[in-house]
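Internal ticket #5521
Category: modeling
Description: The requester needs a full-assembly model to guide mutagenesis choices. All entity lines are attached below as received. Residue total reported by intake: 616.
Assigned to: D.W.
Attached entities:
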Amino acid sequence: MTELLPSEPDAEERDALQPAATPGPRSRRDRIRQGEAWRSVFRHPNLDTPRGRALQSFSNVFLHVYPVKVPARVLRMRYSFRLGFIATVLFSILVSTGVYLMFFYTPSVTSAYGDMQKLRTGVGFGQLMRNVHRWSAHLMVLVVVLHLIRVFYAGAYKRPRQFNWVLGMGLFAITLGFSFTGYLLPWDQLSYWAVTVGTNLVNYVPFIGTLLRDLLIGGEQIGQITLLRFYALHVAVLPVALCVLLMVHIWRVRKDGFAVHRGGVGAFAATDAPANATSSPEPVMALTKDHTRSRLLGVVDREVETAEERPVDDTVFTWPHMLVRHVVVALGTAAVVIALGVAFAAPLRGVANPDSTPEPAKAPWYFVGLQEMLSHFDPLVAGILLPAGVLLVLTFLPYIDRNPATEARNRKVAIVAFSIILIIAVVATVVGLAFRGPGWKFITPWNHSYIEM
Amino acid sequence: MVINRRYFLRRAWKACTAFLGGAAVWTSWEMLKARDVAAGGKITLGNPVDYKDGTATYVREGRLWVVNAGGHLRALSQKCPHLGCRVPFCDSSGRFECPCHGSVFNIGGEYIQGPTPRGMDGYALSVEGDALVVDTGSVITGPENSVQNFDSTAKGPSCAAGG
């Protein structure tokens, strides 16, 4: 992108940019589009030229989320599988369905369960709305995890994206918090006992475990205080936290150039003498130091770490190439969750009863792996040292794994270690979820399934 | 070290921000800390001789079990020390069997098997006049898993539904 980016056209220039008036009377559409009102909203002419497309991005506040141009390889599905984008779409679906649910729900132990029943039978599309909300929530946890796995294997957490990975881990934690707090709200046996088991896992944190748990549920036992607390977290605290973090996360993706160069050393080093950079990534920085470039709003210092300079311009316009793909993926995501919502009803068991534990009582599925580990090992090991250690190492992975290589053959240790942990986590989750029956005894899921989502 | 205006202001706004942060943490803590809603009280349980040897009686009011383990009366919390499930007493085996994760305790609340980190928690029991009184405010942390004072053998089949 060495050419100067176009600036906002002034009024005269705009008129010159308008397509030549077609002979004959102007259609109503043309008249509206050339009228004052339309042009006060959409400030640019709708020109299908490179300049027009660029202007379209510049003058649209929403398109600022995207760069004007992205590397062509970003368009390929298998580049990122669009997982981050799908997670964002699922979040928007969750917000919109969640607001609908809020109209019919009171966070009180006496009415919450009744509200869920009324939603089922007395509200048009109430059940569907709840189903879609629940499936989107499960899928969001899954997609966020897949996104994390994808980014790891691509080595996309390396310079300059170290901090964005940390933000991503924060978003992962918030996603789990969302799902976990939402789990309690129906106030049925499933939610009550899953949250009981889940919050009791916190007890195993050394020294401050009980304190943390009490702070979380607001008392000795899960009750009205807990329900209100989880509700406030679910509908107010976590959404704000997620939006802020997500904003920074996406902003950084965009600022970091949207794409890792595969097979390079470091993120963008493919063009900067890779042989050199294997030993030290410094030359990359040296090359771009003191570099300035023209920007839309004048000359700014080039950010050393986000710099990308490509000898060949392989970029394409975000609008329409990227945007069209995103719209298609968003529609597909919506179709999937609606189909799931139509096909599978969200479970609603009997009203929460602290005096009767259902068999078996399982934590929500993403914590079942932890529960499974807890049934094998000492709680201090399985409940704390292992998960906390994995979480800590994972969060600060970019600062621990200093190897600048992104291709698999040069980062075998990291990949093997990550894969082992991943396999353990998946196996523990699948065993805990599907192969455990009453009394946490080993069962075969094809005879009787105790999976409940 | 000369404290000039610039130096003072630079420190002052940081101090004020830290103060505000501290106030925010304190406020949050006071507002969100656990309320002692379940603050224990004393529950009168009737005549001790009514609790026969080898039986466990559920006291709904206190969410606890009163057991007679070989002549020793105990009040045991229904909450499993593992992950907080309610532990029911299995009459056929004469043991406590947790349905969630398979922890099993003998009638005295001591560990037999399963993932639990310790035996069942209990409450202080006393006799006032000829009535048994349990104080749910005074929790006795369950015994370590190695402690074996009571009979742990199963009297009959287990209640947990097999695989």
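Resolution: model delivered.
Comment from assignee: Chain A touches chain B at residues 193, 196-197, 199-201, 203-204, 214-215, 217-221, 223, 225, 229, 354-361, 371, 374-376, 378-379, 437-444 (CB under 8 Å).
Ticket closed.
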